[in-house]
Amino acid sequence: MLLVSSCLAGLEVRYNGTHSLNHRIHELVREGKAMMVCPELLGGLSTPREPAEIVGGDGEDVLNGTARVRIESGRDVTDAFIKGAYETLRIAKEVGASIVVLKQNSPSCGSTHIYNGEFSNTKIPGYGVTAALLIRNGIKVISENNLSEVLETL
């Protein structure tokens, strides 16, 4: 079973109330080959919500306690991001997911890049909080851009 970001399956759960529909991912969910998760909603955040970025590092640094997740107005939402990451990990283990497809650039889900924490639309290499936790626990995390890597295995 694959886990996939809910926004990639077409649910309007992104910070601004939109989705990032990937038709192939939507089809995998419909076929019962993938299950949707949204770490930010699992962490208690609502839709819509202010955009959030990791300040002072990436998801690894957040998990290590040396970086924080803040919304654009400055409020710290680190605890919600960590809670959502652990809930996503629990679900991944429960369903036996060895691969998770997460939305690139997200402060939760980014698997190679995230925004730099300055709300300037600048991306930097790094992991989101959920991606970092899943990787720490031996679960492969890829972005929607690399979906073809796993399609042959389904």
TrEMBL record:
Pfam families: 2-thiour_desulf. It comes from the Bacteria. This is Uncharacterized protein. It comes from Paenibacillus wynnii.
